[in-house]
Design a protein that fits this description.
single chain; 12 strands; 3 helices; 26% strand; alpha+beta; 7-stranded mixed beta sheet
Amino acid sequence: MTNTTAHTTVHTTTATTAPTATDAPRGRSATYTILTTGYVGSTGPGVAATVSYISDAGRHVIFDPGMVASHDDILGPLAGLGLGPDDITDVVLSHHHPDNTMNVGLFGRARVHDHKVEYLGDQWNNRDAEGYELTPSLRLIRTPGHSPEDITLLAGTESGVVAFAGDLWWHSEGPADDPVAPDREVLRASRRRVLATADLIVPGHGGAFRPGEGVPL
């Protein structure tokens, strides 16, 4: 991740790709806790991932266990929920940049999910993330843009759909012009897709924010 000066673009243009009718999870029973709120160079002392815990139907999920200043930034809040690393059943990686994956090894018993594979022990199971359900309330969709492999976890909760979007947005201010994105129009289409479904967005390196006219595309 590199430092950048973000600027805001109001989303008023027409989407190039429309969300599918099935984007929102079927269920609304998931719960979640943001274990640690991340930052990038312009908003913190270095780079840290926003790491989240999501629970539903007996699944204990960690989203993007990436770079943090200390393992305790992840494991401490998790312990506060009464959970240890071996209780985690699933890890979802939004993409394969090290700042979002660095600490996946903390959860050695978990099934690991990315855009095209589930990994467990020495087992490799090919499957497309698009529309894949961990539970009726937890759905993966492909949202390329920051990288070609980006995925978003959509969690149906009592208060609405929470999108764990990785670096589709680094933080609430974007950046609108992601210097890492290989194709800005692909990024914008994926951002529109998430905005059409989510009631709350958890970005890759900042605090959660709600969709609105100031959210950068």
